[in-house]
Amino acid sequence: MRFACFDRWDKPKTDLTGITSATWTSGVDGTRTLEVTATGESDIGKGDRLVFTDPRGRLQEAIVVSPEHRREETRIITSLVCKGSVQELDDTFIEDKRNRGATAAQCLAKALEGTRWTVGTVEGDGTADLSFYHVSVLEAVESIAETFGLEITASYLMDAAHTRVTDRALSLVKTQGDQTSATPRRFEYGHDLKGITRTVDATGVKTRLYGYGKGLPATDEDGNQTGGYGRRIDFSDINNGKPYVEDPAATAIWGLPGPSVSTMGKNLVTGGGFERKYGDGWLFIPNSAFLDALVKQDGDVTPYEGKIMLRMGTDTSTCATSAICDHIDVKGATEYQLTLWTHGAAGQSCSMKITQNVNVYPTSNIVLDPPVNTGRWTKTTRRFTTHAKCSAIRVWIENPIGTIYLDDMSLSEVTTTGIHPAEGIYENGDCEDKQQLLNETKAELKRRSTPTVSYEADVLTFTHAGMNTTGVALGDRVLLVDTTFTPDLRLSGRVLQLEEDLLDPALTVITIGNIIERFTASNRNAEQRLDRVVANAGAWNTSSQQITQNASKWDQVAQTVVDNGNRWNTTADTLDAKATVWNQTTDTLNRKSGTWDATTATLTARQPQWDATTETVTAGQADWDKAATIADAHAQAIRQSTSGITFHHGDTAITLGDAITLTDASGTWTFTEGTFVKQEPTE
């Protein structure tokens, strides 16, 4: 078998020879590892490439990551550990690339920009918003695969002379291997099988999952977003009020023991609210009762729910004396719960019974305790268990005492169990659609509600166990049956990993099962978390030191707050008391500022003219005052009136009008016929 060798610049080197072992390991998770051992001198070093053909005739390329050369007496042993050449994408950095509403192919093309890799086959539906920020190209490709639920594969082309690799393509497929065969491979594992390693997943089975999506934006009192996020969305309002999905069958097997809990099934009564036309679903006695007994209101009594209620009483012209529901299919030897609402005066009631479709001596009827009325709508709940052979029942409400009203009757199967679901959480912080979140949570529950198991053995062992291993390929579908579980575990698995001996195919080791995380991987994750703790210890110690150094200062600040708290509270109270007035002042300012600004502009524009006017007034004030005095003197001397013109001189006044009069301190004189005649005063 040829292993062509190239340096990191794709220049050919001497082929690797003297090979004593070669193992090519590939997994559906993208793992590709080549381990080769050869004898003799070799100049192959770290970063060189080995190109070879796998057992299915496909070209593969691996990068030497750990070469080892050791001498054993008379010979040199070369051991090479190589990784699939996709690993080189981990050495190319992406600073910031963003995809908005992009397909998987578009995301992959953007991720591979600037590399020597091309886009191969890309499957998958839909689009996504996906950002590559401060990650390697390989990490970006892995995030695409995770987002769209795809698997990573690589393919290669060489030139005709096999002197160099001409194309490296990266593909994203829904599933590797054969998933459509009418006769898939089948493997059954039992207690008597030898040579097979079975590994059960280290994580627990979950039979109920709560689903949570993106956090809702936080808002202030006015409904404005504050920039933060609060409670995450769930799908309870589209899932019958339940924020979870559950697999009851899985709970019965993998649940947890606990106190008994009862749950109610669906309502089995037709027309329990009496809303159907003519009381459909019920038989009333007398038969004509549906005409007057189904009422919308009676005095101040209105239905408990909906628009119609049933009135029962002894007055057969307006009330029903009996109400019998249509037959209800039930299970034998099963507990049921009857619930109804009644309204009647204290002491008024009726009888209730359940009739079954079985004949039992002395009777198969189940008599229930009557409802207790309190003068308002009262809920009555009664439980009963059907006969083992019963398959149908009818509910009878009859023999009313006084007038009572009936509404909203329901009958549900009661399931009581001491087995509780094993609960877990599914989160998708980017999901904003509740239906999408519900679908994703259901898919995750399907995956996590059964144990994940893998089986590992060589080809011959699997063949002896009855499994067809001819032409087996990575990812092929396998039907698994494990009889060591109770009950038998039956699930659909895949060929998870092939550890192929390139020199002797019979020694190839196959791992089949459903996808699992081995305990060692879980332990490795725990170690990584511990490493992060150790890495952060320095920062945390620094924080601790800062607290120690600043404790007294922060204590002083705290004391200052205590000392000034009352004064600051008074300030806050003053602010609360004056806020309205200050707000009104602000409103007035906002409302009048335009007018005031216009006044200021007018004043600024006219001020020079007004200043000139002021100076003119100041300069002429003395002359104008003198003129005003003279004018006043003349006004005193001469006044215009309806009786003529009057001249004043001291206490004497002479009036020239239709007549000439003279007035002084002694009286008034009139000029008549050439002389002044004194006027006698009139009373």
Structure commentary:
The structure is a single chain. By secondary structure, this protein is of the alpha+beta class. Strands 1, 2, 3, 4, 5, 6, 7, 13, 14, 32, 33, 34 and 35 form a 13-stranded mixed beta sheet that branches. α1 (104-111) packs antiparallel against α2. The termini are far apart. Residues 267-398 form the CBM-cenC domain. Keywords: Hydrolase. It holds the Pfam family CBM_4_9. This is Wiskott-Aldrich syndrome protein-like protein 1.
Mean pLDDT: 84
Radius of gyration: 51 Å
The total number of structural domains is: 7
In CATH, the topology of the largest domain is named Jelly Rolls
CATH class of the largest domain: Mainly Beta
Tally of DSSP β-strands: 41
- What best-fitting shape do the alpha-carbon axes yield? flat
> Roughly what fraction of the amino acids lie in strands?
35-45%
| Major sheet details | 13 strands, mixed
- Corresponding CATH superfamily of the largest domain: Galactose-binding domain-like
State the secondary-structure class.
alpha+beta
CATH architecture of the largest domain: Sandwich
Give the helix tally. 7
pLDDT < 50 runs, ≥5 residues: 516-527
Organism: Bifidobacterium callitrichos DSM 23973
GO molecular function, one term: hydrolase activity, acting on glycosyl bonds
Pfam families: CBM_4_9 (PF02018), Prophage_tail (PF06605)
Keywords: Hydrolase
